[in-house]
Amino acid sequence: MMKVGITGGIGSGKTTVCKLFELLGIPVFYADTAGKELMVHNLGVKKAVVNLFGEAAYFLDASLNRKYIADIVFKDEQKLNALNAIIHPAVKDAFLIWSEKQKTPYVLKEAALLFESKSYLDNDYNILVSSPVELRIKRVMERDQTSREKVLERIEKQLPEDEKEKLADFFILNNEELHLIPQVLKIHQQLVLLAQQK
Ligand SMILES: CC(C)(COP(=O)(O)OP(=O)(O)OC[C@H]1O[C@@H](n2cnc3c(N)ncnc32)[C@H](O)[C@@H]1O)[C@@H](O)C(=O)NCCC(=O)NCCS
Ligand SMILES: Nc1ncnc2c1ncn2[C@@H]1O[C@H](COP(=O)(O)OP(=O)(O)OP(=O)(O)O)[C@@H](O)[C@H]1O
Prior knowledge:
Shape: globular
Pfam families: CoaE
Distance between the termini: 9 Å
Bound molecules: dephospho coenzyme A, adenosine-5'-triphosphate
CATH architecture of the largest domain: 3-Layer(aba) Sandwich
InterPro entries: Depp_CoAkinase, P-loop_NTPase
Subcellular location: Cytoplasm
Strand content: 5-15%
GO molecular function: ATP binding; dephospho-CoA kinase activity
Strand order of the largest sheet: 2-3-1-4-5
Structural class: alpha/beta
Function: Catalyzes the phosphorylation of the 3'-hydroxyl group of dephosphocoenzyme A to form coenzyme A.
Number of domains: 2
């Protein structure tokens, strides 16, 4: 199975782009969502999270207190690294199991930290979704009803855009002028051809 990673900084529009690939019949594994599901349903992961953050990491109904964890990790690099070290290997395993079950020419793995976690090395190709930083901040502030400072905290923990550009094979620009659909269609056609040659 040909594996294609797709990433982009916070608010770049990677989930929006993935929805377009899904319309073309391509299955998408959402690593951020999978990570949060594992924190709730995988006992080993859950135990490690409680060890790191205490019982307050979960609400009484056993759901994840995302805000509590986010308020800690995006201000404390050590805690963030420790959380990443728990989640990333578990997500990697879950993706491998999932990808083996798919039957399409290729699959997509959407991950915010594709390059930072080095998981891009496991993929055949990687797509970078880019968007001007001010537009990203505005979109996330509107989507999550959050502050500029909180968005900037996360941006600071991510690899700079020019570093990501060096590592990607395909590029999608999600600004206010270019349309996403033709860009997605073009890359999809190229990937289908590459999968046939594999
Ligand atoms: C801290 C958590 C609980 C906050 O959850 P929340 O629902 O607020 O955010 P969500 O997971 O939807 O992420 C939204 C965006 O925040 C940014 N972000 C999330 N985790 C990280 C991180 N470890 N480092 C830098 N940016 C991050 C990304 O741009 C991401 O797209 C959650 O993000 C988390 O568990 N992060 C650590 C694990 C991880 O690295 N996940 C991402 C890849 S698997
Ligand atoms: N081309 C666009 N036109 C209008 N709105 C857009 C466009 N692209 C993205 N958005 C909006 O911007 C917000 C961020 O997009 P999206 O959730 O796809 O980004 P993301 O990269 O997945 O974000 P995150 O890193 O936080 O997971 C969403 O509310 C989305 O609907």
